[in-house]
Amino acid sequence: MTHTEIEITAELVRDLLRDQHPDLADRPLRLGARGWDNQLWRLGDDLAVRLPWATRSADALLRKEYAWLPALAPRLPLPVPVPQRLGEPSALFPRPWIVTTWVPGEPADRAPVTRAAEAAHTLAAFLTALHRPAPDEAPADRFGRGGPLADHAEGFAKQLASATEMGLVPDPDAVRAVWEDAAAAPDWAGPALWLHGDLHPANILTADGTFCRVIDFGDLCAGDPACDLAAAWILLPDGAADRLHDAYQPAPAAATLRRARGWAVLRALSGILIGEAGVRGRPGGKATWGPPAHAALRRLVATAHR
What we know:
Shape: globular
Number of helices: 10
Number of strands: 10
Strand order of the largest sheet: 1-2-3-5-4
Distance between the termini: 39 Å
Structural class: alpha+beta
Strand content: 5-15%
């Protein structure tokens, strides 16, 4: 992570609005959140300003959302933040930024699901609606999500080794067995489908014990739906993964679910490492990511032979 050289303040955000979108500049403004790539500032009751701050890749991700999400959002059964305005780099701020709709809710890493059956069906309906064939010009993912799982073997090995060295994985052989089975599954042979690409607990919001909104489409891409179907183990409580896969349409093939387990292992290991970095106070760490990631890895190992 490389924090932007310019400190982002309320005064700066308001100056940017006055410069490029003056009709919005007098709305109430307050900090909403500091995410992995962007800062989010509430703008009145129904809008927000997203500005890149912690990664160099954030610029392209914001432009991607602005280009593609307005056309995808109307068909989705859960509300998502829809870009409304684009801010171009300027003397005030040398990076692009967007004005988007505000969607309320609490991130699932802070407010986990408690109504498992309803949440499973809600997420299945969202993924069923999103996973439609994408056009040839659909964006590729920066990390290869949606592509062959085998391409991530080196990353898996490094993450598992790091987590094991820190004593965070009690049975690395069992985790490796889940991965090896997933990596041996046949590759996706269908059309490239639209994917969210980054479904982890901080990117889905909850209210009243179930999912209510999906946020952060910066990793929107096209490819193998197994990448998103991994969310069944990452986001849902014990025993609820099958409910999601049973409700998802068309019914996923056995090979797709095997690959989805591999994607879930990658996501869980990443969350464990980021969570531990947060506990230790290291840059980029998020302590709230650890508990759901540990729970996901336990679920995957426990159901490895099903």
